[in-house]
Amino acid sequence: MKIGIAGTGRMGAAIAARLSGLGHGVTVWNRNPDRARALGLPVAESPAKLVDASETIVSILTDAKAAGEVYAQLLAGHAAGKLFIEMSTVRPQAQRDLAAKVRASGAAFVECPVGGTIGPAKEGKLFGFVGGEVADVARARPLLEQMCRRVEHVGPVGAGASMKLAINLPLLVYWQAMGEALSLVRHLGLDPARVVDILGDTSGAPTMLKNRGPAIAAALAGKEGGPVTVDIDTMRKDLSEMVEEARALGWAAPVAESAMKCFSHASQAGLGKRDCVNIPVNWSARPQKL
Ligand SMILES: NC(=O)c1ccc[n+]([C@@H]2O[C@H](COP(=O)([O-])OP(=O)(O)OC[C@H]3O[C@@H](n4cnc5c(N)ncnc54)[C@H](OP(=O)(O)O)[C@@H]3O)[C@@H](O)[C@H]2O)c1
């Protein structure tokens, strides 16, 4: 299949590698062209040309502002009859706004925000939270199943965004909670790998600790390494979307709101572009009175 990837950031690049590795004809476009050229795949000159060259267009961009700007340019291409799969983490209304514009241009739209980071994206092991019309989701499903270990169609467009914000809330709060937990035992002077192992072998541990525990322990020991998986600014953006969505629904999200303040504090301390392991590392080293 001829697939266009709009946005070759960390996730878009990993998804492009996955799909081209399966034999699809993948063309890429990125605002910063160097990031697209680095992939060794055909690069479209513009979003409109990406659409012209593709049957299905996959987008994964920072936030709603980025998605809005990129879709305005994508839809200048020959979109009619094509399928758009939008995978950014944004609020439900942002996905519904994009869907209306895509449908008005005669194309189909499915949202599929995902759980899982770069490793699972490269291996086709993401968890997809799909929103869309039944026929459009059926059309997208074979491709979604090549990107995801599990595909859950949870309702019309917007439902996938709601589910993605829900699954990310306890995860992001845990990153901050772990920093606070570590601050309680720092004075014991134990080997960080041992402390992380103890925390990971208890009922309070999420799956994330099994996957990222060694990276957290290394960072605690001052040996942060490997590529950034997700940066602190992106997680802060997700928390802000959760808080705003809860407010729009008429609720409060006090735990997410507190976590957001802590993530903002880390961003202001200059850690915004660093990997999320720096949330617990930074907090446990310098607990704050916020
Ligand atoms: N990283 C993860 O583990 C992970 C996991 C699940 C979901 N997500 C979600 O996936 C999305 C992408 O995350 P990521 O980690 O891949 O981020 P990233 O590496 O920072 O990439 C962001 C992408 O958005 C593009 N972009 C930002 N603003 C733009 C604008 N105004 N116009 C055009 N393009 C713009 C960037 O282009 P430039 O290169 O030109 O800046 C880049 O292609 C986010 O919504 C994130 O919440 C991330």
Would you mind describing this structure in some detail?
The chain is α/β, with parallel strands linked by helices and 290 residues long. The protein has 13 helices and 8 strands. The strands form 2 sheets. Strands 2-1-3-4-5 form a 5-stranded parallel β-sheet, with helices on both faces. Helix 7 (134-147) links the parallel strand 7 (126-131) and strand 8. Helix 8 (159-185) crosses helix 11 and helix 8 (159-185) runs parallel beside helix 13 (278-285).
In short:
This protein has 290 residues and is of the alpha/beta class. It has helices at 10-21, 33-37, 47-52, 64-74, 92-104, 118-123, 134-147, 159-185, 192-200, 207-220, 232-248, 254-271, 278-285, and strands at 2-6, 25-29, 56-59, 83-86, 108-111, 114-115, 126-131, 148-155. It binds NADP nicotinamide-adenine-dinucleotide phosphate (NAP).
